[in-house]
């Protein structure tokens, strides 16, 4: 970064002071702005990994044993969070076929506390097990092209 600033100052040093332009000060300001934007982007991209709430950015992954998408959770003793089957389309997901993606990033809109009433249930959890069903939406895009592929688990062919 200092090399760039030095190079710019050396090349355009004669412009400093002309029409009130202080190039080295402007470069410092742009570098500070860039640092602030990077920090903001990092905060916007945080992914919750436990104790999920409305508005959290989460990663959904397809669990072969459950035949459903679950929220990636680092706490093994916490409840499981399943993506509601009626909500798959909102994230461009499918449970079957070649369109099934391994993972997706989404934002939790709502969650329902549930308890399995039958032994054979769509979430393949034991009877009596408590869990959450979540509704999600796609996260706001920070870039129109680069995040769409990165946020859905699709691989380029």
How are the strands ordered across the major sheet?
2-1-4-5-3
Strand content: 15-25%
User: pLDDT average, as an integer?
Assistant: 79
Would you tell me the structural class of the helices and strands?
Answer: alpha+beta
Order of helices and strands: HHEEEEEH
Sheet with most strands: 5 strands, mixed
User: Over the alpha carbons, how many angstroms does the gyration radius reach?
Assistant: 23 Å
* End-to-end gap: 36 Å
Residue share in helix = 10-25%
Low-confidence stretches: 1-8, 143-150
Report the total helices.
3
Beta strand count: 5
Shape: elongated
Commentary on this structure:
This protein has 157 residues and is an alpha+beta fold. The protein is built from three helices and five strands. It has helices at residues 2-12, 23-44, 146-150, and strands at residues 57-63, 68-71, 81-83, 103-115, 130-138. The chain has a five-stranded mixed beta sheet with strand order 2-1-4-5-3, with no helix packed on it. A hairpin with a 4-residue loop joins strand 1 (57-63) and strand 2. Helix 1 (2-12) runs antiparallel to helix 2. The radius of gyration is 23 Å and the shape is elongated. It starts with a helix and ends in a 7-residue tail after the last helix.
